[in-house]
């Protein structure tokens, strides 16, 4: 698969001494036989889940805008980074697009690489998980996976039609059907963005959640310790980041901007704990909506969160 170089363009520091490479200069074409040990960027271009959930549409354009924001970021060393292209949700066929994403994620995992998926609405999460499920299968019974979601919303709606509000309910049902534990942690939950019914469902499913107004910077060391304890008993981690976990002034370009949110430095530090655990298998980012972005700020914040996930597997 050939990289779309029109979205991977950026500064070149010709003539400057020392290491000056930027991400667009080290990116490679996707070749499943060559990706082992590297990171593979995938795009999931979908607004369908957000449309079904009655949200603000526009996230379909998110993947390529995030690539543009990533392109000029400097890299340290020579990371192996590949672009595996986009999965496009066409004609409202969300379930087919999620299945296609799952197959691609499974292919990357089987090749010994880490998929990093750019969305798209948070319906991306069920597609990414389908890839995890295809790759690990029944091993998830004895090798539990922690689904770690940075999000203002539980996204646990129990509805017959899939949307951006249902992915973690769908995951819980898949795991239950395969007699595997459902270990779900949602960090940054807003008490004002989730109904009592959703809090009750989270309790019934034994979901671990932290409220946004408790995730303050002066509690960071305790939060890191709590997260390390959460990671200890699991074999794998699937990390998913909904950009609306951040304060609205930091991430205005999302489907549902947060009135409070969690500070960027807190989110970054906690993601670092996950990355250094050695258990991170796949990551994605959701709900970036370029239609409502201001001066590309949200794209730059998203790129900042994605950069270490793509270029540094462990510190």
TrEMBL record:
Keywords assigned: Histidine metabolism, Hydrolase, Manganese, Metal-binding
Superkingdom assignment: Bacteria
Name of the protein this chain belongs to: Formimidoylglutamase
Amino acids binding Mn(2+) 2: 151, 153, 242, 244
Keyword Hydrolase found: yes
Family: Belongs to the arginase family.
UniProt key word Manganese: yes
PROSITE patterns named in the record: ARGINASE_2
Record: residues binding Mn(2+) 1: 122, 151, 153, 155, 242, 244
Taxonomic classification: Bacteria, Pseudomonadati, Pseudomonadota, Betaproteobacteria, Burkholderiales
Cofactor binding notes: Binds 2 manganese ions per subunit.
Pathway participation: Amino-acid degradation; L-histidine degradation into L-glutamate; L-glutamate from N-formimidoyl-L-glutamate (hydrolase route): step 1/1
């Amino acid at each position: 698969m050939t990289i779309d170089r029109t979205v991977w363009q950026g500064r070149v520091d010709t003539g400057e001494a020392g290491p000056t490479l930027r991400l667009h200069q080290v990116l490679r074409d996707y070749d499943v036989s060559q990706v082992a040990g590297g990171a593979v960027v995938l795009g999931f271009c979908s607004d369908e889940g957000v449309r079904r959930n009655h949200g603000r549409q526009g996230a379909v354009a998110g993947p390529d805008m995030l690539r543009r924001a990533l392109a000029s970021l400097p890299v340290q060393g020579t990371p192996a980074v590949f672009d595996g292209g986009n999965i496009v949700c066409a004609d409202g066929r969300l379930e087919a697009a999620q299945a296609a994403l799952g197959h691609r994620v499974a292919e990357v995992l089987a090749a010994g690489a880490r998929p990093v998926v750019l969305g798209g609405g948070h319906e991306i999460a069920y597609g990414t998980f389908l890839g995890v499920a295809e790759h690990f299968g029944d091993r998830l019974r004895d090798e539990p996976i922690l689904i770690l979601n940075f999000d203002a919303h539980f996204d646990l709606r129990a509805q017959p039609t899939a949307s951006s509000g249902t992915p973690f309910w769908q995951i819980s049902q898949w795991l239950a059907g395969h007699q595997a534990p459902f270990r779900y942690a949602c960090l940054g939950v807003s008490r004002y963005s989730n109904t009592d019914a959703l809090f009750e469902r989270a309790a019934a499913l034994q979901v671990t959640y932290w409220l946004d107004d408790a995730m303050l910077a002066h509690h960071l060391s305790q939060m890191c310790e709590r997260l390390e304890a959460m990671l200890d008993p699991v074999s794998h981690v699937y990390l998913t980041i909904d950009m609306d976990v951040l304060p609205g002034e930091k991430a205005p370009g999302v489907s549902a901007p947060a009135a409070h949110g969690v500070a960027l430095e807190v989110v970054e530090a906690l993601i670092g704990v996950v990355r250094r655990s050695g258990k991170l298998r796949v990551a994605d980012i959701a709900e970036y909506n370029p239609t409502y972005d201001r001066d590309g700020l949200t794209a730059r914040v998203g790129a900042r969160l994605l950069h270490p996930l793509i270029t540094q597997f462990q510190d």
